[in-house]
Design brief:
This protein is of the alpha+beta class and 329 residues long. It is built from ten helices and 13 strands. Helix 2 packs antiparallel against helix 10 and helix 5 runs parallel beside helix 10.
């Protein structure tokens, strides 16, 4: 028997099989993975992440300690500067996944999940005591930080009225206005029709407009809840924002938006939303989000601002379901 501990980061070689330990696992995976082994396939591999597709609606993402926590993600217990890509994962490799381990037979790797710390990916809805004035200041502060430190080549340019028009801004502006009206009127058809023109717009694993919509979903839930809106009403709106999702964007982005519809967001997004509605300073949390990806963090933060100001203007949705909720402040 060959048994070797390769490093302090618990890379174990046993009978020629490399065993990696999981450092943490998102709670939504705890809820969905069972003792029954399911087949998966490596969908995509990047420097610090590897996406494993289980079926048309499920994803497991392996991430390095360098990245923050995400829904549906497992953080590996490896050196922070080690790239996931260097482990040997390649697109198309088969995987076998259950609640205890993930096996990648092509490269003789087993990832042990038992004993990993659970990161709670569920939303944190707590009543806030900050004033509406302070809430508005926090939202405007995020806008200022995006324009100062963010990347506005994508849809984030929509926040800057003085910016030179770009293709993204020109293309989405009418649909964004239509989406605002749909949410304000609680008009499900208008919401879904407007969103349909936004979903999937832009290049990359998570297109720019999808990141923007994710930010809107975050504000819809957290700032909508601040104003006393029922979560069921907010969930209905969120559901119609992504109503026509299948086939319109990348698989990774589809999973991201489905998680957003359930109010499950990455750690930087959730931390920023909690700062917006509970604290007097949002700068550090906002900078953390702006540092995510190429333009993804900035586009998402722009969605948070746009959605936040919209929900601030709407306030509380009231009224009977028969006639549709009305708006009051």
């Amino acid at each position: 028997m060959i048994f070797k501990v390769k490093s302090k980061k618990f890379i174990i070689i046993l009978m020629g099989i490399v065993m990696l330990l999981a450092k943490s696992i998102a709670s939504d995976l705890i809820d969905t993975l069972t003792s029954k082994t399911v087949d998966g396939i490596v969908h995509s591999v990047f420097d610090h992440a590897c996406n494993i597709q289980l079926d048309k609606n499920r994803l497991v993402t392996l991430i390095s300690p360098k990245l923050p926590n995400y829904p549906s993600a497992i953080k590996l217990d490896i050196a922070e500067n080690r790239m996931i890509r260097s482990i040997g994962f390649k697109t198309g490799m088969k995987a076998a996944v259950n609640k205890d381990e993930i096996k990648i037979p092509d490269i003789n790797i087993t990832i042990l999940l038992t004993g990993a710390k659970v990161w709670d990916s569920s939303p944190l809805f707590l009543r806030s005591n900050i004033s509406e004035e302070k809430l508005n200041e926090n939202i405007e502060k995020i806008r200022d930080l995006i324009l100062k430190y963010g990347k506005i080549e994508g849809v984030a340019s929509i926040l800057d009225v003085n910016a030179v028009d770009n293709n993204y801004k020109n293309f989405i502006i009418n649909s964004v206005k239509r989406l605002a009206k749909g949410i304000s009127d609680f008009d499900y058809k208008e919401i879904s029709e407007a969103s349909k023109r936004l979903i999937g717009l832009g290049p990359g694993l998570t297109p720019a407009a999808d990141d923007f919509l994710l930010g809107i979903l975050a504000s819809l839930y957290y700032i909508g809840y601040y104003f006393g809106n029922h979560l069921e009403n907010l969930k209905k709106i969120a559901g119609f924002i992504i109503y026509d999702l299948p086939g319109r964007t990348t698989f990774i982005s589809e999973i991201m938006l489905r998680n957003g519809m359930k109010a499950r967001f990455s750690e930087p997004i959730r931390d920023l939303m909690l700062a917006v509605i509970h604290t007097t300073s949002v700068q550090d949390k906002c900078i953390n989000l702006l540092n995510i990806g190429g333009t993804s963090g900035s586009d998402c933060a722009a969605g948070i601002v746009w959605g936040g100001l919209l929900m601030f203007d709407i306030g509380k949705l009231t009224g009977g379901e028969e006639n549709g909720p009305k708006i009051s402040r």
